[in-house]
Inverse folding.
């Protein structure tokens, strides 16, 4: 990538110009994920208590922090993609996020993830999906009317 292209991309990231309503929903969802990751990284015991999870062993807290790091990475992808106006990422998120509740249900059923954590992830992801879907459909309807 040339220096000019890198500079233009960085400017788009900072200014968030040409961002769609659906892109804004991705960005907000990403910021929520990033904030959750920070809270879990700083205080896994507090989060476990708030979600009524069993007390952690030292290793359990470390794994919870590792999961938070992954959630933070996903959050960063959502923030950057939303700010850059990536309609491809919007579409990909509409395919991906509805899969979270069934996946969490299976993980809960198998005893891998506690029920409150599975429920929290499911509600967050599915409500974010519905918000993005609504914005994306409204945006597509506006484009269709304009043509």
């Amino acid at each position: 990538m040339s220096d000019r292209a890198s500079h233009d991309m960085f400017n788009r990231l900072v200014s968030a110009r040409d961002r769609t309503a659906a892109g804004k929903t991705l960005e907000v969802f990403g910021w929520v994920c990033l904030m959750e990751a920070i809270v879990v990284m700083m205080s896994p015991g507090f989060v476990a208590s708030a979600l009524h999870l069993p007390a952690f062993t030292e290793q359990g807290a470390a794994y919870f922090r590792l999961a938070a790091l992954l959630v933070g990475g996903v959050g960063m992808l959502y923030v950057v993609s939303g700010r850059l106006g990536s309609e491809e990422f919007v579409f990909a998120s509409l395919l991906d996020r509805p899969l979270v509740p069934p996946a969490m249900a299976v993980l809960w059923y198998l005893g891998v993830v506690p029920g409150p954590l599975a429920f929290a992830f499911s509600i967050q992801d599915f409500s974010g999906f519905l918000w993005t879907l609504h914005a994306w459909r409204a945006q597509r309807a506006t484009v269709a009317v304009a043509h």
Observations:
- The two ends are 34 Å apart (CA to CA).
- The chain has one domain: 18-142.
- Residues 115-146 form the longest helix (32 residues).
